Amino acid sequence: MNNEIISVHLGQCGIQMGNSCWELFCLEHEIWPDGIGDMTDDCGDWGQQNTPEVFFHRTCCNRFVPRAIYVDLEPSVVDEVRMGQYRCLFNPQNLLSGEEDAANNFARGYHSLGKRIEERSVNRIRKMAEQCDGMSGFLLFHSFGGGTGSGFASRLMEKLRDLYPKTSILEFSVYPAPKICTAVVEPYNSVLVTHATIEHSDCSFIVDNEALYDICQRNLDVDLPSYRNLNRLVAQMASSVTASMRFSSVINVNLRDFQTNLVPYPRIHFPLVVSAPIMSAEKAYHEQLTTPEITNACFHPENQMVKCDPRRGKYMACCLLYRGDVVPKDVNEAIVSIKSKQNIQFADWCPTGFKVGINYQPPVAVPGGDLAKVIRSVCMMANTTSITEAWSRINHKFDLLFSKRAFVHWYVGEGMEEEDFLDAREDLAALEKDYEEAGRGYSEDFWIREERNRHRREENKKKRRRREKSTMTDSDLEDMQDFMASLDAKEARRLR
Questions:
Q1: How far apart are CA 463 and CA 127, in angstroms?
Q2: Residue ranges of E strands in 44-182
Q3: Phi (first) and psi of residue 49, to 5 degrees
Q4: What distance in Å separates the CA atoms of residue 404 and residue 415, rounded to the nearest whole number?
Q5: Rounded Cα–Cα distance for residues 459 and 451 (Å)
């Protein structure tokens, strides 16, 4: 079996997204919460090859174990998985937790606490990779605003890139929303993690909670959406992205295709994601949308999973992944209709081509959930310059905090320096500029700046490593104190 994918869930947000994802993946592959499969053969209901081995390792006793690792620096969220409905599904050795919370501090996740759990995490990932015949890549689920999701995710991603330099790394990341904030220091963490991972991630699908809240309230009639409601939307998105690798079809898409078709330049790898239709069971009872209708819905700003307006920017690439009762003829008609619209603009240097994937396996809905079961759906991933709205918002919030050096001492006390903040902010300003220039067409200045940025990042990385080598952790200090105490004891015995 080839194309295996290893999922890495980091921090509270990443783990809770993972819970919803594995709930859905088990339903799609007819696997019970204890890992026992219901499949009588390898073909799905629609005559398609069903290959759960992409996400699951099949044991000798015919149990399916997720190729997934859960990591958090404090135990409570991982303990919920250990004691929950799916406790028998996961390998207990892949559920890792520390003893202290990262306290929404990037530096604690990257430096002091992250060091303690890094080796265990990497060893478990290496063991899963060794079980694969032809690993396709990694999917990382995390938030940009939390301490573990930002700091430890950055540290682990650097390590994975060193160990697996040619393997795809894709992220499903929750980005800070414009008006909803879970921590005051979210802007710091977000800028630092973007700076730290920009050269290690191949493609990052970002969503924000405010956009997901609005979709739940408007489309699903949920007045007070919970995180479970939001995470189930993310799970549907992750399912659509990977469906072609798990269910064979006439037009397949794999992880490498996303990079080839969505990322025109390595740094510009933050596509918007939209799913359609998102509707409640009551609405689905009265209507079923056609292929052109669900395609048009993808280009409406209110359906975006990040708060920005694509009509203000230019598209550089677009990928449409269809599932269910969809025929190529209808898809072609829908795309012709989209191209004819004046408010959808592509960059001058980019041909108005759409990467299309069609999978006849219909989307699955969680029983008792808010999402209706539909006969067809589409997931759109589009690389557009309008994403700079998200960068610009977070940069502005960062500047407000950092101008007063607010909360910086918490980061410096955990092994960072003020210079790290300045480097990260400068890198995000360059990212904004990169997107703006991409919309106009690359100039010679762009390539000169890119080369300068690359050299600066390499120097910063060397500086960080030198600092880490010269910095003692608490455990190092304790070992040194024990060693000195033993020397004192020996000297006292000698004098006696």
A1: 31
A2: 56-58, 64-66, 68-72, 95-97, 134-143, 168-175
A3: -70, 120
A4: 20
A5: 13
Rounded distance between C-alpha atoms, residue 433 and residue 438, angstroms: 8
Q: Which residue has the tokens 């703006």?
A: 436
The residues, ordered by sequence, that sit 6+ positions from 391 with a Cβ below 8 Å of its Cβ are 428, 431, 432, 435
The answer to whether domain 2-389 and domain 390-474 are alike in fold is no
Q: Judge contact between 230 and 370, C-beta under 8 A.
A: no
**Residue, of 281 and 356, whose pLDDT is higher:** 356
Residue spans of the domains in the chain: they are: 2-389, 390-474
Return the structure tokens found at 328: 């190529």
Looking at CATH, the fold of the domain delimited by 2-389 is given as: Rossmann fold (3.40.50)
For residue range 135-181, what is the model confidence (pLDDT) as tens digits? 999 999 999 999 999 999 999 999 999 999 999 999 999 999 888 88
Q: Which tokens belong to 285?
A: 């009872």
Q: How many residues does the chain have?
A: 496
Question: For the sheet containing 2-10, what is the strand order?
Answer: 95-97, 68-72, 2-10, 134-143, 168-175, 203-208
CB 314 within 8 A of CB 387: no
pLDDT at position 45: 47
Query: Regarding beta strands 64-66 and 315-324, do their DSSP bridges make them parallel or antiparallel, or are they unpaired?
Result: unpaired
The Cα–Cα gap between 20 and 369 comes to 11
Q: What would the pLDDT profile of 203-226 be if each residue is shown by its tens digit?
A: 999 999 999 999 999 999 998 999
Q: Provide φ and ψ at 143, rounded to 5°.
A: -110, 155
How much is the pTM? 0.88
d(CA 184, CA 392): 17
**Which H helix or E strand runs over 216?**
helix 209-219
More confident site: 479 or 195: 195
Residue 319 has φ and ψ, to the nearest 5°, of -125, 125
| 301 CB burial (10 A radius; 0-12, 13-18, 19+) | middle
Cβ–Cβ contacts within 10 Å for residue 427, how many? 21
pLDDT digits (tens, 9 = 90+) for 450-475: 666 666 666 666 666 666 555 555 55
Res 488 pLDDT > 70: no
pLDDT of 47 reads 44
Which residue type, as a one-letter code, is found at position 446? F
Taking the C-alpha atoms of residue 259 and residue 143, their distance in angstroms, rounded to an integer, is 21
Kind and range of the H or E element at 218? Answer: helix 209-219
C-alpha span between 381 and 152 (Å, rounded)? 27
Nearest to 342 by CA among 355, 352, 332: 352
Q: What residues are paired with 361 via a beta bridge?
A: none
* Residue 197: its H or E element: helix 186-197
| CATH for the stretch 390-474 | 1.10.287.600
- For 445, the token pair is 């200045």
